[in-house]
Please model this.
Amino acid sequence: MIIRRRNFLKQISAGVTAVSAFTSQAWAKPTAKPIVVSTWEHGINANAEAWKILDKGGSALDAVEAGVRVTEAEDNLSVGYGGLPDRDGNVTLDACIMDENGDCGSVAFLEGIKHPISVARMVMEKTPHVMMVGQGALQFALDQGFKQENLLTERAEKAWQEWLKEAEYKPIINVENHDTIGMVALDAQGNLSGACTTSGLAYKMHGRVGDSPIIGAGLFVDNEVGAATATGMGEAVIKVCGAHLIVELMRQGNSPQQACEKAVRRISQQKNAKDIQIGFLAISKQGEVGAYSLQPGFNFAQYAQGTNQMKDVGSFYS
Model:
């Protein structure tokens, strides 16, 4: 089963404004606080939930957790509940969260818990650790009161059964089999936080973990500078510590847009770059937004000043 992102746009509510181009020639200017941005079309609903908190003066940390929980609970073949399984038929989840103090929490290879982002926050707030994985992460989640449930929906199982007929492992660019929701927010107090959650590559090897739960790869927040998140082929992002690279480029004086573009160019030097998709999304301490991708087709959602809208993103291989 192939779900193309362009078709998904038809499902976006009428209240969303038209998609607009977002390239190095049209950087997003700093906007009034608060602001929240997230990857892909499913970020529209996630942003709306996050905005309920930000609009009332709530923290960016609470907002990003609440926002991505919406996507985790949607049956979208990509994130959390209903996500496409690994090649053995198991839905395994990865997530991380990071706040304005540099505190962070992460879970990887977690099964049977609908909201791994909330487990990641509990790792951050209730343990001396940053990352928990596998059975240990599951036991921790159960000890904290989370309920274990079957996340493999009938639709995802049918897609997996169809894949098994040939069992060809070749991720398709911009098809919902390797997606993430990454969200970063700036609250009214001027603090940044971020969250990233996924069910990872469809039909991956059992035990594979991508960039999404890795602080510095799929997500990084520095409250003095900015925050960044990633989507796409996680192995490529890990190799350049993508989110951290972008924030450090911003520290050196690059705008979020320039930083995202430089990070993508670095990934373009990898040997398989023409066969994969990578998208980066970043926000500065001043509320300036940047985004760039390796291949055409990446977009993101932005909620600021009472408007929730989609933006197309420029790409290296345009």
